[in-house]
Amino acid sequence: MKCDLGRYSLNFSQPFLSLFPMIKSLSLLYPKFSYSYSHISVSIFFSVSSLRRNFKLIVENGSNSKPVISTLLYSTSSSRRLEGKVAVITGGASGLGKATAEEFVNHGAQAIIVDIDEEAGRMVTTELGSAAHFIKCDVTEEEQVARAFETVMARHGKLDVLLNSAGISCSISPPSIADLDMDIYDQVMRLNVRGTVLGIKHAARAMIPAGSGSILCLSSISGLMGGLGPYAYSMSKFTIPGVVKTVAGELCKHGLRINCISPASIPTPLTLRMFREALAGHNIPEEHLMAIVNATGDLKGEKCEERDVAKAALYLASDDAKFVTGHNLVVDGGFTCFKSLNLPFP
């Protein structure tokens, strides 16, 4: 069966023909949906993934082209999802920030790496090429943060995406709240919370006049369950989803979205350093240390990797998540969903 759609025509394979009773029903529900067996004119598309196998695009000259129904039904599923976007990534010189910067650039974004580590930051921009730029900045100092965003606006004229990924952890010792070092607590909260809030503040100043933008903040499963990390670090990560929900109501009135990502433990330099310090007296080989870090997930055959978080950030930054705001996207392989009883039988 052949369907004409303007300058294109579609051939329908046999499995698709079984859908005609459904199509007839749609024509009753949706006046703009018209059909006929001999010649079909479609005014609206609907997303049914199973249909992708049953479409073949034929251009006017009759030559076959590659299937493009995914482009028609899912506007960004196979395209560069951040084409033309400008994204700032704090803490982008290493770890999850670096992985996300790579993902953003691969999908067409201009990535501005904002980090206090100039050497590592410039190495990342060299790796990523002309689509990446570096700005040295201490995200806890508001004057430097303001200047960084002013530089972005002067260079690019807009800001579409901010990822707040700059952060630090601390030693698990001392293990008791009774012995908490308040100087370390202040240091962790200053970077992980104040740095995030400053990023949100100055990104909002750039985005509100444009009426659009996506702000992302990294948290952790340590901010969802107690006992998964050092006190100061966990407290800072519990704060981030609260910050996101607190400001989401205002930002959505301006067309801005803000979301949070809470991943499981990933063997980034920051995480490995924390585990090495905690287990320093046990002489644990590096491969065993990696296994311990990767154990925070219950999805059989999988482990949480930097690219999993980067792809979550890509989704939330893109127009695919245009109606998602105030959300905490947990990337943990089910770790925080349940507590297994570990019964002594299968």
TrEMBL record:
Gene3D superfamilies: NAD(P)-binding Rossmann-like Domain (3.40.50.720)
Record keywords: Chloroplast, Oxidoreductase, Plastid
Subcellular location: Plastid, Chloroplast
Molecular function (Gene Ontology), one example: oxidoreductase activity
Top-rank taxon, per record: Eukaryota
GO CC annotation terms, alphabetical: chloroplast
Record has Oxidoreductase as a keyword: yes
InterPro entries: NAD(P)-bd_dom_sf, SDR_fam
Keyword Oxidoreductase among UniProt keywords: yes
Residue spans crossing the bilayer: none
Family: Belongs to the short-chain dehydrogenases/reductases (SDR) family.
Protein name: 3-oxoacyl-[acyl-carrier-protein] reductase
Organism: Brassica campestris
